[in-house]
Amino acid sequence: MPTDLSALRARVENAAKVLGRCWPLQSYIAANPLAGLEKLPFDEAVAEGQALYGGRGYPSVAQLRAAWDAGAINANHLADRLEAYGFTESPAHLLDRMEAATPPSVNRSNDSLLNRVMAKWLAVFVDQGQATWTMPRRQEGFYAAWRAVAPYDTTLAHRDCLHDLPERPLEALAAALSDVEPSQWERVLRHHLTALPGWASFIKWRSQDRHDAWQAAHPITMTGYLAARLHTARAIGLPVAPDGVAEAAVGASRNGRDRPAMAAPWLEAWEATYREQLLHDVQAAAATIHTGAAPDRPKAQLVFCIDVRSEVIRRHVEQAGPYQTFGYAGFFGLPMQFQPYDSDNRITACPPIVDPKHRIQEVCGDHRPDAAAAHERWVALGRAWQRLIKSLKHNVAAAFGFVEGSGGLFGVAMAARTLIPGWLRTQHQAWAKRVPTSDTFCDLSLDRAPAADHADGLPVGLSAEERSYYAEAAFRLMGWQQFAPVVVFTGHGSETVNNPYASSLDCGACAGHPGGPNARILAAICNDPAVREVLSERGIVIPEDTVFLAAEHTTTTDAVRLFHPPTLTERQAKIVDQLRRDLHTARVQAAAERAPALQGARRSHAVADTARRAADWAETRPEWGLSGNAAFIMAPRALTAEFSLDGRAFLHAYNWQTDDRGTALETIMTGPLVVGEWINMQYYFSTVDNAVYGSGSKITQNVVGNVGVWQGNGGDLMTGLPLQSLQVDDATPYHHPLRLLAVVYAPRARVSRVIERNAQLRSLFDHEWMALTVLDPEHSNRRYVYQPGGTWATPSTESRDDQDTEPALAL
Amino acid sequence: MSDTSHNIEHTLHPLKKIEIIVKGKREHFVQDLLEKSGVSGYTIHRNVAGKGASGFHEGHLLFNDEASLVMFFAVSDQSKIQAIINGLSPLFESSSGVMFVSDTKVVRLTKFLSAEGQQDDGS
Amino acid sequence: MLSSFTTRLTWLLFLCTVGALVVHAVAGLDVSLGALLRIDGLTLIMAVVVTFVSGIVHSFARRYMAGSHHGGRFFSRLFGLTLVVLLLTAADHLALFAGCWALMGWLLADLIGLIRGWPQARAAARHARWSFLGGSVLLAAALALLAGQTGATTISAALSRIESLPVGTLASIAGLLIVAAMIQSALIPFHRWLLSSMTAPTPVSAFMHAGLVNAGGLLLARFAPVVAGLPEVMLAVVVVGALSALLAQAWMLVQVDVKRQLGCSTVAQMGFMVLQCGLGYFAAAIAHLVLHGFYKAYLFLSSGSTVVMKPPGAEARDASGGPALVVTGLTAVAGGGLFMWFTGKSIAAPDGGLLLTLVVVLAVLHAAHTMLRTTALSAPTRAVAVPLVVLPALALYALVYNGIVALTATTPMATAPAEGSVVHGLVGALFVLAYIAVERGWHLERPRLYTLLLNTSQPAASTVTTHRTEYHAH
Q: φ, ψ for residue B26 (rounded to 5)?
C-alpha cells in the first residue's frame, strides 16, 4: 500500500472518532451519542456537539422551568451553584434570559441534495430483508455496489465523471481529495461524516462489529462511504471541501460563546437535589446496618439484573416472603452469543463493551420428543403462513388477487386488535400454551463441542474451567455469603407489539435481548456437580440442598416466569410452589405501584392495564423502560432495601468485606458502571434534544431497512430513543435528564485505587460525564465526593469542619 | 517443515521490527493496516498492563474489552514498516498509543516476506 | 374531551350506516333528499366502510396519539373529513359534490402537514394541496360542463340525460373526470403527493390509504355512465390503470422503508381498481376499494411491527418437481373457475372479466406455488393447505362482490362489462410476463433498471428530512 494511502486510512479513522455508534433496532444499545467526544470535559463536549450536529447539550429552558416550578430543583442548591458560577440575577430572571438567547445554528443547507442521495443509497444497501429486490452487487461491498449504480443516477447532474472511478475505495477517496491539502483531509472528512450523523454512526457500528452476519455478507466501511459521498458531491457540482471547513477545527466552538453554559448551574442544582435525598436515605440505612450476626437463611434468593426496573419488583418480592434479592449484570457474566433452537440467528447476549467469547446453542434434547415435534409443527406452520403472506403481498401480479381474497380478514383483525387487545392477548396465551416452549425440551450446549464451529472464531460451549470461572465470578462480585435452598437467576425482557423500539426495553446487558437464556445457562452451570466441587475448593461452598433455577422478568407486566426447572426435592418443590404464588403477589403490587406513572392506568386495574399495554398495537408507551435512571449503587441490598428508589437506581450487589483486593469493585466499576453511564447518557441526550440525539415522535416514524427509523419520507437515520419513551406528552419529560451518580459503599482508598488504575473511568469522572460519591464504612459511613482531578470533598451539609480536600490516593 | 532446511546455512537477514500498543478499540484498525500493508504475520497480546503518559493502565478487565490495551508485534522489511508508520502516525496525533521500531535479524527470510499486501475490497 | 366525543360519534355513525344498509338491502329503495342528496347502495357501502375505518382510526389514535399536542386538530380534522366523505358519497347536487371534493382535499392536505413545526411536513402538505387543488379544478370543470350541456343540477338528472350529448363533449367530460380520479387515487404520473405524504402521523396514513384515495374510484363509479359509453376511453382507462398497477408494484420491490412500500402498493392497487373500472366492472372496483381499504389500513397501523431479526442470505428456494407444477397449475385453473362461478362470469361470453379471472388465477397459482415448495411442512399438510387457504378466500371475496352487486343494482351502470379487445389481451399478457419475469429473477442484476425504479419512486425533494436539526415533533 502506498504510504500516502495508509496515511489517508488513518485520517479516516481519526475523522470518524467524533461519531458515536448506532446499533440496529433488533438489538438496541443505549449509548452516548457523544461517545466520540467523551475525552473532552462534559461542558466542552456538548458545545462541540452543538457545533458539529446542532444539538442542544443541556436541558431546555422549558424543561428547567418545569423542574423548578415542580420543586425538583432545590432553591438552596440552585443559589449555591449560581453563586459558584458567578450569576447574580434571580432564578426567574435567568430563566427569562436563557429563553431570549438563541442558540447558534448550524447552517448546512447546501448539502441537502447530497444528503438525500447518500441516504437513498445507504438505506438500500444496509437493508436487512425489507425489500424483495435488493441493491445489485451488494455482496461486493458498499463502494463497489454504489459504483455500479451511480452512473445511472439521473439526480446527479455531472454523473459522467463517475464512469472511470478507481475500483478500490481508498484510491477513490484519495482521488476525490486530490485538490485538497493533505493537512486539511481530516477536517474535510469530518465535515462529510457529520453531515448525516445518524447514518454515519450506524456505519461506524457496523464496520467495527466483527460478529455481525450482515456486515460479513455486505461489507461497508467508513472509507467506502466517504469515497462514494465525495464523488457524489463532485457529480452534483459541490466542492469536496466547502468554504470554511478548513477553519473548523474541533474545539473551534470554544471561542466566542457563553462559557460555561448558562444552564450548567441549573443542571447541577437539579442533580444535587436528587442526589442529596438519595444519599441521605442510603447513609441513614448504612448507619443501622447489622454486621456480624448472620441473618436467617432465606427460603429463596433471586438474582435480578442491575436494571433500574428491577428495583421495584425486588422490593415487592422481598415483601412477599422470606426472600433475599441481589443485583448483577443481566448477562450473568457470560460473554456469549446465543443461538436459539430452530433459528439461524446468532444473538450477541453480552454488553457492547464485552466481546462474545463463546457460542451456546439450544439443542433439542432427547427427553421430550413429543414436545419437540409439536413445537416444530406449530413453528413450521406459522413460518409457512408468514412466508405465504409476504410472498403474495410483494408479487407483481398476485398481489391484486391477494388483496381481494384477504381484505375481509384484515378488516376483522384490525377491529379486534384495536377494540379488544386485552381479550386477544388472553386468547393468544391460551392458544400458545399448546405449543411447548423450547426450554421444556431443549438442552443448552454447555459442553465444549469437539468439532467447534470456528467459522467466526467462536468456540461452541464452555470448557470445565470456564464454567467454574463464570460461576465463581458471579458469587465473588456479588459478595455472596450464604446459599438458600432455591436460588433463581432472573433475566429480563419486555413484552410489546407493533413497537420498533421493543429491544430498547429488553436487557441492555444482553445487548438489547431478553436475558432468559443467560439466566438458564448460569443456573445450569451452578447445578453442575463438577462446578460445585471446584467452587468449594476455592472457598465457595454450595450446600447439597441448594438448587439453581432460571426465570425471566417481563418488565412490561412485572410477571416473572420460571423456566422449566431441573428435578427438585420435595422441600425445594414446596418452596418453588410458594415462590410462584408470591411472585404473582409481587407482580400485582409492582404493577399497582407503576400504574400512576402510566397515563390512564388505574391502580385497581393495574395488572389488566399492563397486560393490555403489552398487547396493544396502538400503545406507544408500553412501559417507561429505564426512564428516570439517575444513580448506580454498588452496595449490599441492606443499604437500599428499606426505602423506595422509585425505579431510578441501578443496583449492583457489592460487599466490601469480601473484596479485600478490590478486584470485584474494579470489575463492577469498569464493566456494569460504564454500561450504566452509556444508558444514562443516551436517556439524557435523547431527552434534552430529541430531534438531534433522539429519534423523534413515534407517530411519524418510518422503519427503514429493518435496521432503524427515519422521520416521514426519508433522510438521515434517527438514532436514540423516541419521544414517547421519555416524555409524558410533547412537552413534558417523564425522564429527568440528570447525569449518573455512582455510589459505592467501600473504603475510599480502595475506590481511589480502582480509579487510578483505569484511565477510562478516570476520564469519565474527571470530565464530569458522571459523578461519584463513596460512603466509607471504615470512616463511620462518611460521604466522600469525588472531585475532577482526583481529590475528594466531604459535603458541607455533613460536617462543616471537614472541608479540606484530600489527595485521592492515601498512600 | 521443508526437508532442505537443514542444508541452508543459518545466515541472519536484517529486518525491521515494529511494536505497537494501542487501545483495544483500535485493534481492528491496526490489524487491518498490517494486513493491507503486506505484513504476513504478527502477534497480538491483549490485556496489556502498564504505566504511561495517561497514568497506570490496568490489564485484564473481566467485563470490559474496550478499555484494555493491545500490543502488536510484527517483523518485515523497511518499506512495509514505513507504510505502517505512515498509517499510524496520524492516529497518535489525537489518541493515545505508542510504537517502537527497531532493527532485528531473522533466520528464515521467506517466513516474513512471502505475502503481498491484501487489496481492499469494494466495501 | 374532543377525541372521546368524536370517537363515539363516529362509531354511532357507523351503526347508523350499517342499519341503513340493512334497510336498503331489504327494502331496495334509494332515498332522495331534495335536490341535494341521494342515498343509494353505493352511498351506503362507502359510508359503512368510511365510518368503520374512521372509527378504527379514531379508537387507535386515542391511545397512539396520547400526549401529542396536535390531538385537538387531529381529531377535529379526522372527524370533519369523515363527515365530508359521507356527504360526498350521498351528494346528488353537482355543486355539493364538487364542494365536498375540494374540502376533502383541503382537509387531507392539512392532516399531511399536521406537524406544523416541521418544514418537511409543511412541504408535503403544500405538495398535496396543489395536487388536490388541480384535481378539484378539473372536477369542477367537468361538472360545470356536464351541468351546462345537460341543464341538470343533480348527478342523477345529468346522468339520465347524457345520451343526448355529443360524443366530443362527453369525451371531454370523461377525460376531465378520469384525470381528477387519477389525482385523487395517486395514479402514475400523479402519485408524487402520496409517496411524499409519510410526514402524516400513522393513523392519518391509514385513513388516507383506506378511505380517501378511494374517492377516485367513487368518482368513476358515480359517473360510470359518462365513461362506460365510450369504448376508446374505457380502453385508455384500462391502460392507465394497468400501467400504474404494474409499475408501482415493481416500485414496491425496491423500497426499503415500510411506509413508502405501502404507498407504492396503494398506487398499484388503485391502478388495478381503475383497471377494473375500465373493464366496466365498477362493482368489482368498489369491492376492491373496500377490501384494499381494510388491508392497507391494517398494514399502516401495524407498520411498527416489521423489525425482526433475520439472518442474511437469499430465501431458500426449494426445488419443485414436475408433479408439484402440475398440482400448482391445476389448483390455479380450479381457482379461476371457482372465481368465475362465484362471481357469475361466463366463459362463453368472453369480456373484460376474463382479465379479472386471470389475475385471480395468478394469485392462486402463486399461493399454491409458495405453499407447495415450503418443505418444512409435511406433504399432506401442504396439499391440504392450498385449498384450505384458497377456498375461504375466494368465498369471502365472492360474498363481498355479490353483496356489492346486489346493493348497487339501482346505481346506473354499476356493472357494464366492456367487450373483449386486443388491448385487454395485451394487458393480460403483460401481467403474465411480469409474473414470469419476477419469478425467474430476470430483473435482479440490472443496475440501470434498479436505479430507474428507485429514482422514479422518490418523494418530492423538499419533503425529505436531510438534516435532523430540521425535524420537530410539534
A: -95, 0
Of C210 and B106, more confident? C210
Contact C260 A153 (CB under 8 A): no
Strands (E), A170-322: 300-305
- Distances from the Cα of B97 to the Cα of A647, B27, B31, B53, angstroms: 41, 11, 15, 10
Question: ipTM, 2 decimals?
Answer: 0.94
Considering the domain architecture, whether residues C232 and C140 belong to the same structural domain is answered as: yes
Nearest 5°: CA angle at A394, between A391 and A396? 115
Task: Select from 3.30.70.120, 3.30.950.30, 3.30.70.270, 3.10.580.10 the CATH code of B20-106.
Answer: 3.30.70.120
Which of A349, A626, A671, A623 minimizes the C-alpha distance to A491? A349
Same domain, yes or no, for C279 and C396?
no
Report yes or no: C250 at the A interface, CB cutoff 8 Å.
yes
Taken as a whole, chain C contains a residue count of 474
Query: What is the torsional sign of CA C77, C78, C79, C81?
Result: positive
Cα gap C223→C412, rounded to integer Å: 8
* Of A4, A142, A670, Cβ closest to residue B67: A670
Task: Give 3-state DSSP helix, strand, coil % of chain A, rounded to 5.
Answer: 50, 10, 40
Pair type for strands A649-652 and A631-634: parallel
The b-or-e profile of C296-319 (16+ CB within 10 A means b, else e) is bbbbbbbbbbbbebbebeeeeeee
Q: How confident is the model at residue A808, as a pLDDT?
A: 42
For residue A807, what is the enclosing H or E element?
A: strand A806-807
Task: Describe chain B by its helix, strand, coil percentages, rounded to 5.
Answer: 30, 35, 35
pLDDT of residue A682: 98
Identify whether residues C264 and C383 lie together within a single domain.
Answer: no
Residue C83 lies in a domain: yes
Of C295, C310, C364, the CB nearest to A129: C310
The H helix count followed by the E strand count for chain A is 27, 18
Residue-wise pLDDT for C333-350, tens only, equals 888 888 888 887 766 666
Residues of A whose CB is below 8 A from C63: 616, 618-620
Written as one letter, the residue type at B108 is: R
Could you tell me if C251 and C358 lie in one domain? no
Same-domain check for residues C237 and C279: yes
Position C289 in a domain: yes
User: Which of A329-333, A691-695, C343-347 has the lowest average pLDDT?
Assistant: C343-347
- Bridge-based pairing state of the strands A770-776 and A782-787: antiparallel
* Predicted confidence (pLDDT) per residue in A760-787, tens digit: 899 999 999 999 999 999 999 999 999 9
Q: What is the span of the domain harbouring residue C86? A: 2-302+457-461
Spatial separation of the C-alpha atoms in residues A376 and C44, rounded to whole Å: 47
C-alpha grid cell, residue C467: 438534516
Q: How many Å apart are CA A322 and CA A523, to the nearest integer?
A: 21
- Within 10 A of A600 (CB to CB), how many other CB atoms are there? 11
Domain co-membership, C33 together with C69: yes
Residue count of chain A: 811
Q: Do A758 and B58 touch (CB under 8 A)?
A: yes
Helices (H) and strands (E) in chain B, counts: 3, 6
Do C159 and C63 share a structural domain? yes
Model confidence at A692: pLDDT above 50: yes
Positive or negative CA dihedral for A697, A703, A709, A710? negative
CB contact under 8 A, C466 and A383: no
A178 C-beta neighbours (distance < 10 Å), count? 7
CA distance A550 to C124: 52
Q: Which residues of B touch A472 (CB under 8 A)?
A: none
Per-residue pLDDT tens digits for C261-271 = 999 999 999 99
